[in-house]
Structures are given as C-alpha cells and as structure tokens.
Amino acid sequence: MEFPILFLFISLFFFIDFCRAEEDLDASSSSSSSSSSSFYQNFDVSWGHDHVLPLDHGGNMIQLTMDKFSGCGIISKLKYGSGFFTMRLKLPERDSTAVVTTYYLHSHTPLHDEVDFEFLGGSKKTILQTNIYVDGVGGREQRVHLWFDPTSDFHTYSLLWNPHQLVFYVDNTPIRVFKNNTRLGVGYPTQAMMIEGTLWNGEGWASNGMPINWRYGPFKAIYEGFKIEGCPLDGPTNSSDCESSKYWWNGENYKGLDPKQLRSFQYVRRKYVNYDYCRDRKRYPKAPLECQQF
For labeling, which of 23, 156, 195, 252 is most exposed (least CB within 10 Å)? Predict the structure, then answer.
C-alpha cells in the first residue's frame, strides 16, 4: 500500500502548487495599476501623426488607429541603457486578424538590438509573441496564449532589462527570462534603445496569409502609463553607469526571480506557451546556445 499513498501525496503536492500559481496570476492581474505620467513628457509620435489621438487633456491616455491608409507609432524622446519599462494597453476589439499591436525597445542602429512584445490579432484570440534581437540577429520567438481577454480592459506589460537578465512581465507575472550569458558566447542586448509602440498591418506575416477583415476597421489600441524608469543615454551618462547599483532595477533582488515569481513563471510556461523557438527542431536542428541549460 506504500506506492498508492506516495502517489497520492505527490498528486496533492502538484495540485496545491497548481492552485497557488493560479492565485498568483489572478492577484497579479487585479493589482496592476496605471501611471499618471504624461505622454508628452517622455514620448513623441514617430509616424502616422493623424492616426494618434490623445483621449484626455493631460496626455495620460493615447489612442493609436489603423485604417486602410495607414497605421501609426509612438517613440520615446530618449534612449536608455537599462531599466524597468512598463506600458498599459487595451488591444483592438472584435476580429483583428492580421492587425499587429506592439510595445518594444529598439536601438535604431545598423546591427540593432530589439526586445519585442508583439500582439498578433485574430478572429477569436490574440496571441502574444515575444522576440529578442542582438546585433541584428533575431529568430528568438516565443508565443503565449494569454489567460485573459486583452481587448476588454487594460493590462500591464513590462520589461526588466539589466546587466543580469531580461524579463518580460504580463500584469507583474514573468512570462519569459533571457539571461546574460555573454561569458559563454551568448549574445545579449547592450545597445541603448528607445521605447516604442505601433499599430500596423501584418497581412502576410502575422496571420498565416489571412487578410484583414476591414468590416471591423478602423482598428484602435489604447496606451496609458507613460512613466519611464530607465537610465538615459542621450546625455553625458555612459553605458557603464547604466549597470550601476544606484538604479534599483540593477540591485541584488533583480539578478533572478524570487520563489513566488519562479512558481508563476513555471506555471505560465507549462500551461500557456504554445511556441518556443528553443524546441523547434525543424528550424533549429541543434538548440541555440542560449536554450541550453547552464
């Protein structure tokens, strides 16, 4: 009778862990809040100027619109060398097949660094794709089915970027971790980057050839929370300063995930990730170096 009892205890352990992870996700979603920082303080319109509309007098909420003629984008006034970057988004409603909404970092250099949140619209569900470019080389896509409807309300999307790790968060829950393993030959984003958001036509790329259903257009995404916590690099600051522990996001507590974050992260990875380039053997017969365990 020892084996059934042992099996019962193991099953109970995993059930409790599952429930705790669910509670962590629910708590993270409900505790997210918006920032009162103004768009005009930290951002400009990068393209499609007549498709970007402030929804209040203070510039705390900005609407991006895409129609048959144009999409649009916003961009930070400065570049940053590290930081904790957060934006709250409400994605286009209804059938948004082939409509791409983004929030990302980009260095705007010939061999660029880039860190992406890409929301790929669909007829039933929006998929979140993340990607990382280092020195112009990307191909590090991961896709997540979100555990909520990102079109019905605002949710918080954040990037922690420091000398130790790059972490993607959704409502304070880590969904992806990319460690700095340059000592082992793995590339890591180090170039100063700007913060951007765009809404654009992804036909032929984001929808497996499916066209946009213009009956539901124009498509609108709303951005809010424009406070930036980052190390600016357009002034006299040099890149080594951006690694300093004087910035809270570079401290000891941000070298890795804490136990609660790790539990939530592992739960999301098990239940919601539906594509990971690290596991794509048709594309990468040998796993990329960063996908190997160190």
Answer: 252
Token couple for 37:
């920082």
Amino acid identity of 45?
V
- Taking only the tens place, the pLDDT of each residue in 30-88 is 444 444 589 999 999 999 999 999 999 889 999 999 999 999 999 999 999 999 999 99
List of residues 6+ apart from 202 with CB closer than 8 A: 98, 99, 100, 120, 121
Nearest to 217 by CA among 52, 123, 122, 95: 95
Reply yes or no on whether 114 is catalytic. yes
92-116: b or e for each residue (b if 16 or more CB lie within 10 Å)?
Answer: beebbbbbbbbbbbbbeeeebbbbb
22, 23, 93, 118: the active-site residue: 118
Q: Would you call 243 a catalytic residue per the annotation?
A: no
User: Which tens digit of pLDDT belongs to each residue from 169-228?
Assistant: 999 999 999 999 999 999 999 999 999 999 999 998 888 888 999 999 999 999 999 999
Pairing label, strands 61-66, 52-54: antiparallel
